[in-house]
Amino acid sequence: MLTIALSKGRIFEETLPLLAAAGIVPTEAPESSRKLIIGTNRDDVRLIIVRASDVPTYVQYGAADLGVAGRDVLIEHGGSGLYQPLDLQIARCRLMVAVQRGFDYEGAVKQGARLRIATKYTEQAREHFAAKGVHVDLIKLYGSMELAPLVGLADAIVDLVSTGSTLKANNLEAVEHIRDISSRLIVNQAALKLKEDRIQPLIDAFTSAVGQEA
Ligand code: PRT
Ligand code: MG
Fold this sequence. Notes:
Number of strands: 11
Protein name: ATP phosphoribosyltransferase
Subcellular location: Cytoplasm
Pfam families: HisG
Subunit structure: Heteromultimer composed of HisG and HisZ subunits.
Strand content: 25-35%
Largest sheet: 6 strands, mixed
Keywords: Amino-acid biosynthesis, ATP-binding, Cytoplasm, Glycosyltransferase, Histidine biosynthesis, Nucleotide-binding, Transferase
Bound molecules: phosphoribosyl ATP, magnesium ion
């Protein structure tokens, strides 16, 4: 059995065409079925549905042979035990620093002020501000980061931005770009050796499907 870990929502939706290119079609949609293990048209392939930030963990420990995870999630996880053969160019967005409209971020940085930063991405935020030589207090949040500056929890947030409409709706503006993010195919290193005959063709099919889209 080959087990592929995916998260619901954009990653599942954007991985579907790549799976189809490898001849794999799920028998159900995770949103409607509520099942966490989903069969496919192939008896030897199944999908498991986990939280986006848990995908690397399932693959690292071999509970899934493969998975699809955002670069944001992979950097926070650290990538240990994972082979990352392919950037799938899906679920693209940018990791940004954002503040409430009108907050003088550049001024605060120039004055050497200590900034309070709310984020789910503490590793990447720590690294970003350390490289700039800005002193920060990091406040770990698990979601709705956009709220933090509005209620005085933080001066700034580090969060993912795609269309920018969430920032706009909450009177925030992006002030710094940290990195571009897309999702990658990840493979358990031991599984790659043991099940190479089934995993390599899948990597090859994904690779040519990504090439065609680009
Ligand atoms: O939702 P859950 O807490 O389970 O986890 P998650 O939010 O990490 O999962 P999910 O499925 O929302 O995102 C999975 C992956 O998609 C992330 O790890 C990213 O690599 C990628 N991705 C791409 C995004 C976005 N675009 C994105 N826009 N992940 C989240 N967002 C959020 C962002 O955090 C912000 O709240 O969408 C909001 C901003 O969107 P815009 O379009 O208004 O700018
Ligand atoms: Mg989400």
